[in-house]
Amino acid sequence: MNEDFTQVAEAFSRKALVYDDFGVDHENLTRMRQTVYAQVQSFLEPGDHILELNAGTGADAVHFAKKGFQVHATDISPGMVKQIGSKIQAMGLNPLLSVEQLSFTELHQVSKGPFQHIYSNFGGLNCISDLREVTKHIPKLLQPGKLLTWVIMPRVTPWDWRAALKGDWRTTTRRLQKDGIRANVEGVEFQTYYFSPKDVMQALGPGFEVVKLQGLSTCAPPADNDGFAKRHPKLYRMLVRIDETIGHWRPFNGWGDFFILSARYQP
User: Fold this and answer.
1) Element holding 223 (H helix, E strand)
2) Tens digits of per-residue pLDDT, 26-81?
3) What is this structure's pTM?
4) Taking Cα atoms as reference points, which of 175, 174, 182 lies closest to residue 254?
5) 65 vs 47, 60, 203, CA distance in Å?
6) How far is the C-alpha of 1 from the C-alpha of 109, rounded, in Å?
7) Nearest 5°: phi and psi at 192?
8) CATH of the structural domain 3-265, one choice from 3.90.470.10, 2.40.40.10, 3.40.228.10, 3.40.50.150
9) Percent helix, strand, coil in the chain (nearest 5)?
């Protein structure tokens, strides 16, 4: 494990106990999660086995397990893994939901598989500079003909362009930095990187084809904005409607706070 991954594990272990609190009464984050869930579930069949990368406290894993899918959640952070374990016991989700502490660069060590879907939500994969360190393991884990869905932070997010009106070009252009930027979570810094859909597909290689791509919060507020929907409800609803329309169009389907990319494995 390199130094930055150690920092990532420490940062999110510190965040684990309060991570779920941020989503309480957060209309925008709930909307974004539901959009991701809808795309993933459109490709699933009853009883499918899902591998989740960067599972965090297990909010998404719990959602899919409650829908009857078998989910194996992985995360590098011991604090996050502990939270998932607590939810499994408290909600009686064993054996539908299992958890394993594992980096996404160590997927050759996954204790289960093969899987019918591989899932990663809300930018966990943006913590690595070279996605090939993750994707090289996927062919051994994903059944041929099945899909992965990854939610990635792109380089282009129009919401950040508002900062240019205040002369804050650093914020406006931060995602365009080739070597990424420093993130700070609970006082721990680590490097984050931004990718285009093309970057992801190049890392996956010729055995994959895009099935669906949509931008998430292209015009609507980003996930870390928990107050906009309450302060400006009419404007918020209008921006969401615009998102729901243009989020499927080029180039907007690769822009936003995130993009949702589903790709089929066809070796």
Assistant:
1) none
2) 999 999 999 999 999 999 999 999 999 999 999 999 999 999 999 999 999 999 99
3) 0.96
4) 175
5) 10, 9, 29
6) 14
7) -125, 155
8) 3.40.50.150
9) 45, 25, 35
